[in-house]
Amino acid sequence: FSSREHEKVGELVPKCADVLITLGVRSRKIAKVALEFGMNEEFIFQYDDVMRAGRELQNYLQPGDVVLVKASQSIRAEKIVEEIMADPELASELLVRQDEAWKKR
C-alpha cells in the first residue's frame, strides 16, 4: 500500500468500523487519518506485536461481528485470525502459511 492508499483506508474506517487495530509502522497513518476523520481515539489501537493485537481484538468481538484483516505477508496477520478463530484447531486447514517452516518465523 502506498501512503495515499493508507490515507484512503483511514478516511473510510470511521464510516464502517467500530474498532481499528493496526499493526506496524506503515499502518500508523491509517490510525492517524481515522482519528482526523472522526473515529473515537478510545477505539484506535496500534501494535507492533501481532499476538498482542489478536488478544486485544478478542476483547471487542461479539457474535455476528465482521473482522477485516489486511496486512503484508511479513506481518503474519494469519496469527491474528488463528487467535480469534472459534475453532483454532482448524487453522492448518483454513489459514495460509501453516506449514512448520512458516510457523517458526
From TrEMBL:
Name of the featured protein: UDP-N-acetylmuramoyl-tripeptide--D-alanyl-D-alanine ligase
One Gene Ontology molecular-function label: acid-amino acid ligase activity
Species this protein is from: Candidatus Kaiserbacteria bacterium CG_4_8_14_3_um_filter_38_9
UniProt cross-references to InterPro entries, sorted A to Z: Mur_ligase_C_dom_sf
SUPFAM superfamilies hit by this protein: MurD-like peptide ligases, peptide-binding domain
